[in-house]
Amino acid sequence: MCGTENRFVEEIDYGTPAARSDKTVTLTIDGRSVTVPEGTSIMRAAREAGVVVPKLCANDMVKSFGSCRLCLVEIEGRNGTPASCTTPAADGISVSTGTERLQSIRRGVMELYMSDHPADCAACAAGDCEMAHMAETVGLSGNRYGMEGANHLAPSVDDHGINFKELDVSNPYFAYDPAKCIVCSLCVRACEEQQGTFALTVEGRGFESRITAGMDEPFLQSECVSCGACVQACPTGALQEKSVIEMGMPDHSEITTCAYCGVGCSFKAEMKGEEVVRMVPYKDGKANRGHSCVKGRFAYGYATHKDRILNPMIREKISDPWREVTWEEAYSHVASEFRRIQHQYGRGAVGGITSSRCTNEETYLVQKLVRQGFGNNNVDTCARVCHSPTGYGLKTTFGTSAGTQDFDSVEQTDVVLVIGANPTDGHPVFASRLKKRLREGAKLIVIDPRRIDLVRTPHVEASYHLPLRPGTNVAVLTALAHVIVSEGLFDEAFIRERCDWDEFQDWASFVLQPENSPEAVEKASGVSAELIRGAARLYATGGNGAIYYGLGVTEHSQGSTTVMAIANLAMATGNLGRPGVGVNPLRGQNNVQGACDMGSFPHEMPGYRHISEDATRAIYESLWGVKLDNEPGLRIPNMLDAAVEGSFKALYVQGEDILQSDPNTHHVAAGLEAMECVVVHDLFLNETANYAHVFLPGSTFLEKDGTFTNAERRINRVRKVMAPKNGYADWEVTQEMARAMGQDWTYAHPSEIMDEIAATTPSFAGVTYDLLEREGSVQWPCNEKAPTGTPVMHIGGFVRGKGKFVRTAYVATDEKVGPRFPLLLTTGRILSQYNVGAQTRRTDNVLWHDEDLLEIHPFDAENRGIRDRDWVKLKSRSGETSLRARITERVAPGVVYTTFHHPATQANVVTTEYSDWATNCPEYKVTAVEVSPSNGPTEWQEDYDAHAKKSRRIVHVEAAE
Amino acid sequence: MSHDKKFNTGEEHLIYMANQIATFFTSQPGNHAAKGVADHINSFWEPRMRRHLFEIIERGGQGLSPLVLEAAESIRRPKAA
């Protein structure tokens, strides 16, 4: 079922992108009749008919350009030899692709190319150079011109060095060798059309034309974001992965899913033996459609990093050094400790945290271990600290805890509203798809305290940017609703048909209250009433309106209220239930959606069924043979509170670093320190492991089978391409722990776990590995009603029945600025790093970002005597830390911003314990702080560093295999 | 560390969370605010949190919003530990 035999995944390149048209044309190509949509190129029509036309400068990801002159064809009754890539197919024409005349022209063209191509091209030799392949295809044998004369191969005195450019190896992941380049511009077009960065250009004219990055800079110094699209497009080996140069071409490959953000890109893991040669984005991947970012494409080196811990370890006290033990010893130690603690302190004294990085199957097993094995519901997941308000808010209003669309939907959107998200950094591949749509003319509204890149980036400019003060999302969204209702811009027919009309009327009267008018909200939010009115009118009347949001929405004390305010706006304007519209949470981690779906929350079984529902519990009770607790369990912050109070004593944490990622580090540390058995199951000795008693080595996404579910509810396969370096996939480790605790688990493969999920969860009822093999991926709900999944939800009606409008009164956060803490700190991510950085910091991505910086407005900096790159102390009511400043107008006066990728900074030392009223999602995005000049790291940072070093000591023993 | 903590005790945190829930339901229409608070706490609060809440109420409920006190009769009493 999940092929153990090595295969190499080949994809067909149709040469030019698919045309969209209802009309078709029928033509004849080399005697074969073919019918294609109007607007299809002859090249693509030929490929569909099974005729491969030689080419170098075309692929089906970018628009055709007609530069290489290899794809020439003859058309009966027409003069000349047009390029098939730029000539549209027409009804009734007859095309020849292989006449002697064409072959002769192609040989001539290739001969000229090869006369200026290095004879020792390593890519040619490795079989990764289309040039060699084309030379062979057109039957080129030899080169009459020789390699003398003007060329691009070596410096020459004759041309004053204009034609030759040095090899550029500045980018850590790929090299650019201009000597091999034929200036076909595929890379330039890939950078423009696929990625949307416009970092590459053709400089010079005629024979002097060269491809350059930025202002003729090395790639690394240019605005290149290292997405890899140009490398993938290059037909000549001029742009090539360094890994291929070093290791040679891969010999087998497997399709899998990226383990970074919630976009969930599909990749071909191209391998040589047990080693990854490169990760190549997969065109049939429905989330990414063949595109990638620097993380998924290149930053996989952490999988083989020397810091990975490969043997289980134990210690009595957290001040002791680690002692390596056998797996059996580790399992029996955990089992006896958890048993002892439950006996001594009660059944509820232990719990577990599932990972949003692990697979659905692994997550399911951890919550099963807690519910079946521990006999309580003390299970939570990192979604607690990111998207739990999405779950609450969308379930309340629509009836289900998930985004409404697929990513393809953006191609039909007319107005995009981005709020509290920074897609170009956090969700780069979706951002590229979004920017493509914006370049086609869709309008953009950005609601964010910072001037994120999307506000103004090449060929994209937001119609409105509402730079609101952190913490005022609800006020601004309700003011948008005020404008929509007061100006009669709502969709009455949609509301009457799909929503509860009485609730709408109540909501309408609420939003019309004077305190919700743009003028009233201006004062609290700092956004002018005029901007609010303009944005509201555009969203309500600009055609298909789609809202995309991120953690800038959820991580507030009114996070759940904000999600409901977003849902209200979409319902009021009828922007739900069809392609191009919707409410789209951009999920942080690869499997946040899946972790939530799999019953990771302490109040919910898989499929979002409350633990108090007798019928749901009965399903699992009969299958698992235990009585399940009908009371909700502790959420992560509650676990920590209970630990400090002495009633919570042991925790199993799979693939999450709560010490670094959760708010108020001092409180987290105090909670962990109060526990008697903390089990950390991870790739590395992360910050949480400093407080752990047992360490179980984890496995990477390359080392196991399973599934991830991305932000569009898409269940994608993860495929094992190498044996786990630690010996076991994470699901196997959890299974052995459960067995050590007396559970009779006998899963032989993750597909069997999915079968159990499907058998017990209505929204997953139709999901099997066989189905995923056939379909590539499916979006839940996937069941009898939707056998191949559900791309768009709420078509014709809401899951809960009638859509529910909810009043969203603005409540200012209690985290207030004052004389001691006059600035508001907000936090976020950067493109090259990922969350707490455990993975990306262990790759060359650190070349782009090797420390967290504090962004501060020039006005605030000057008042404090702070210069760019100065060390500054960042202090809040919770704690203080030091980092360097970056002076920028991206943040408004009064607002400062930093990332949280580096443990040395520990931005969460300053964040507070305030949290969302409904879900306890922490209020990361608003902290009152003061910033002052400093000499370097604080005493606490130095102490922490010393403590971390001390707690990572390992006493090595001979592995007892 | 010499920081002025928001919550010196878990109890202060618990009271704060209960009042936050009350603030939301106060803003909702109709006369269901107390029921809203009770339902929310019943759905999401682990028994020891509810037990702690009842202890605070039995001591006079100092710091709790009146709506939380009103909701208390509909909050499920946890079984004895």
From TrEMBL, chain A:
<keyword id="KW-0479">Metal-binding</keyword>
<dbReference type="Pfam" id="PF13510">
    <property type="entry name" value="Fer2_4"/>
</dbReference>
<dbReference type="InterPro" id="IPR019574">
    <property type="entry name" value="NADH_UbQ_OxRdtase_Gsu_4Fe4S-bd"/>
</dbReference>
<dbReference type="InterPro" id="IPR006657">
    <property type="entry name" value="MoPterin_dinucl-bd_dom"/>
</dbReference>
<dbReference type="GO" id="GO:0043546">
    <property type="term" value="F:molybdopterin cofactor binding"/>
</dbReference>
<keyword id="KW-0408">Iron</keyword>
<dbReference type="InterPro" id="IPR006478">
    <property type="entry name" value="Formate_DH_asu"/>
</dbReference>
<dbReference type="GO" id="GO:0051537">
    <property type="term" value="F:2 iron, 2 sulfur cluster binding"/>
</dbReference>
<dbReference type="Pfam" id="PF04879">
    <property type="entry name" value="Molybdop_Fe4S4"/>
</dbReference>
<dbReference type="GO" id="GO:0016020">
    <property type="term" value="C:membrane"/>
</dbReference>
<dbReference type="Pfam" id="PF00384">
    <property type="entry name" value="Molybdopterin"/>
</dbReference>
<dbReference type="InterPro" id="IPR006656">
    <property type="entry name" value="Mopterin_OxRdtase"/>
</dbReference>
<dbReference type="Pfam" id="PF12838">
    <property type="entry name" value="Fer4_7"/>
</dbReference>
<dbReference type="Pfam" id="PF01568">
    <property type="entry name" value="Molydop_binding"/>
</dbReference>
<dbReference type="InterPro" id="IPR001041">
    <property type="entry name" value="2Fe-2S_ferredoxin-type"/>
</dbReference>
<dbReference type="GO" id="GO:0015942">
    <property type="term" value="P:formate metabolic process"/>
</dbReference>
<feature type="domain" description="2Fe-2S ferredoxin-type">
    <location>
        <begin position="23"/>
        <end position="101"/>
    </location>
</feature>
<dbReference type="GO" id="GO:0008863">
    <property type="term" value="F:formate dehydrogenase (NAD+) activity"/>
</dbReference>
<feature type="domain" description="4Fe-4S ferredoxin-type">
    <location>
        <begin position="172"/>
        <end position="203"/>
    </location>
</feature>
<feature type="domain" description="4Fe-4S Mo/W bis-MGD-type">
    <location>
        <begin position="251"/>
        <end position="307"/>
    </location>
</feature>
<comment type="similarity">
    <text>Belongs to the complex I 75 kDa subunit family.</text>
</comment>
<dbReference type="InterPro" id="IPR041924">
    <property type="entry name" value="Formate_Dh-H_N"/>
</dbReference>
UniProtKB/TrEMBL annotation, chain B:
<dbReference type="InterPro" id="IPR021074">
    <property type="entry name" value="Formate_DH_dsu"/>
</dbReference>
<protein>
    <submittedName>
        <fullName>Formate dehydrogenase subunit delta</fullName>
    </submittedName>
</protein>
<dbReference type="Pfam" id="PF11390">
    <property type="entry name" value="FdsD"/>
</dbReference>
